[in-house]
């Protein structure tokens, strides 16, 4: 079961406003998260990262980017955005 993450506006990233416009357009058209991950790696002066509510910066997402996935054993943190 998943719930949409409101902290990142369902994108899986925070501070996307710092990404170049052309990169954002490509991401929005394809929804390929590798585009933003590549931009993060190639650029050093920014605060863009994997959302710390639906994932772990530098490690990936708990499930689908921008979504909280709960498991029956409660091994995932309760999201701060709810």
Description:
The protein is an alpha+beta fold and 82 residues long. The protein has one domain. It has two helices and six strands; from the N terminus they run E-E-H-H-E-E-E-E. The two termini are 15 Å apart. The model has no long low-confidence stretch (mean pLDDT 84).
CA gyration radius, whole angstroms: 13 Å
Query: Biggest β-sheet: count, sense, barrel?
Result: 2 strands, antiparallel
Outline: globular
Q: What's the count of strands?
A: 6
What's the pLDDT, averaged over the residues?
84
Percent of sequence in beta strands: 15-25%
The SS-based structural class is alpha+beta
Percentage of residues in helical conformation: 10-25%
Low confidence ranges: none
Whole-number count of domains: 1
Order of strands, widest sheet = 1-6
Distance between the termini: 15 Å
């Amino acid at each position: 079961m998943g719930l949409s993450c409101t902290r990142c506006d369902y994108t899986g990233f925070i501070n996307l406003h710092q990404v170049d416009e052309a990169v954002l357009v490509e991401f929005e058209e394809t929804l390929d998260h590798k585009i933003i991950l590549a931009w993060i790696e190639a650029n050093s002066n920014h605060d863009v990262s994997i959302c710390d509510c639906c994932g772990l910066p530098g490690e990936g997402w708990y499930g689908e980017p921008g979504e909280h996935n709960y498991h029956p054993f409660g091994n995932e943190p309760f999201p701060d955005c709810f």
